[in-house]
Write a structure and sequence with these properties.
This protein is about 55% helix and about 15% strand. The relative contact order is 0.17.
């Protein structure tokens, strides 16, 4: 008969378990940050004046960004003022507000358990620019997140 004895107290086992969970959370957050950054990099490249759409104020471009959350708590955000435009700040404020509202709505409906990425373009006319004019406002970022998440999780080495 083989007998195995642990030379650890229950408190030490709990601490080791918590440490492993924290390490997995760090790796997961890093992976989500890479996915979000890549998606927004692709989207922002398509939003340049030479290949995108007119946005004299810069508000639409500035309102496009995203949040990473876990269990309804915001862990990271990526919103940037557009390098183009005359009045960019209202856009970034509208984007953040919409993203926070989306996370809050999912939290109140019980859909926010676990990890999530919220992508938005916060100006009320964003869908019109995308649908009526066929210009990518946030669609390419959505597609990139969907494509990249599987790869990101394969890269997590815990």
């Amino acid at each position: 008969m083989f007998r195995l004895e642990l030379d650890m107290t229950p408190a030490e086992l709990d601490a080791m378990y918590r440490e492993q969970l924290e390490e997995m959370d760090r790796h997961t957050l890093d992976a989500f940050k890479r996915v979000l950054a890549r998606a927004l990099q692709i989207q922002r490249a398509k939003m340049r004046p030479d290949g995108g759409y007119d946005d004299q104020t810069g508000q639409l471009r500035s309102s496009t960004g995203g949040l990473i959350y876990r269990d309804g708590l915001i862990l990271h955000e990526d919103f940037q003022l557009s390098p183009y435009g005359t009045d960019k700040t209202p856009g970034i404020d509208a984007g953040r507000e919409l993203a926070l509202r989306e996370v809050k709505l999912s939290r109140s409906s019980g859909d926010s358990a676990g990890w999530g990425i919220t992508l938005v373009s916060g100006m009320e006319y964003a869908s019109w620019v995308q649908n009526a004019h066929g210009k990518s406002v946030v669609e390419d970022a959505f597609l990139e997140v969907a494509k990249s998440l599987d790869q990101a999780f394969r890269e997590i080495d815990v």
